[in-house]
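notes to self, project folder thing:

trying the whole complex as one job this time. last attempt i did each chain seperately and stitching them together was a nightmare. two parts in total, labels are on each line so i dont mix them up again. if this works i'll redo the older ones the same way
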Amino acid sequence: MSNQKPVVAIVDDDPRVLESLEELLESAGYQTSSFASADAFIGNGLGGIDVLITDIGIPGVDGFQLRKWVLDRKPDMPVFLITGRHEIADRSQAQGITGLFRKPYEGQSLLAAIEAAFGK
Amino acid sequence: LAELSASIAHEVNQPLAAVMNYSSACQRWLDADPPNIERAQKTVERIVTSANTAAEVVGRVRALFRQSSATKTCSSLTSVVEEVRELLSEEIVRRRIHLEVDVEVGVSVALFDRIQIQQVLINLARNGIEAMANIPSEGLLRIAVRSDENMVRVEVSDQGPGIPFPERIFEPFFTTKEQGMGMGLAICRSIVESHGGKLWVEEHKPSGATFLFTLPLAPLIASESQNGNGLDRNSK
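result (full assembly):
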């Protein structure tokens, strides 16, 4: 492993959530790369990204679709889904997905999950 | 109601998620060796801002469901329209909007809550101003007050692109604005209805939208009337 900090990409259409996640991840020593939509993230490509955290309810391509898009290309990349709409988290589509966090979640538990994904 | 509570929960969860993220971050900045006081300080400020946002959502939801209040002490729409013109004056100049006000003389309205009706008018006028942000010419915003049978009609017209979802825009949390919360018109409608009136939108020819709301006229007409006794309409 190099000394470079891992880069976590964050996709959320709510700038308040985006900024707070940046702060959380930076406090844990990660570099962040923020996107307001899945399309913006896809346009940027997967180069240099180590982890993805995406909101589910984003306009256009949603979090579930984005997760699939990423895993089709990089099956090993840790992908975390977050949502403020708990009815989405209850949908059958969400069943069996590990790394799904319901807002508001404990920041430490998200960080612990990211760390565990790197330790694998 | 299930849909509404899900929307409210989401609206509250967003700033709460930010509060949680910032709190964990703050803890980490303080636990660092040496502690990063500067970042921790900044993060605490963000916690306060986010918590206020959550409180604001709750406040707006309360306003939406608030029953007709006991502060109906105002009867002059003219003064409310004047206050609104005053409050918007800076914005109107900055956005190069021409404001036309046309209030029928001598209309006496049933007692209403001055602050609430002012809030409705400001909201409708701001929407109109924002709707005209991208039109090439200087926009015209028109506020008109007219009596109509036993109601008074207040109209706010703009020359923007019009309303693509005329019924949905009154739903709570439905918004066509990038930064909007989608509460404005829902609250306006609830306020107008609590005063016994109606709020709706019509197309404004040749372009734009007209928002209209009604309020009941005063039960007693104290001003001069055609018949001379001043009691010819709706006397108790």
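what i see at first glance: DSSP finds five helices and five strands in chain B.
need to look closer tmrw
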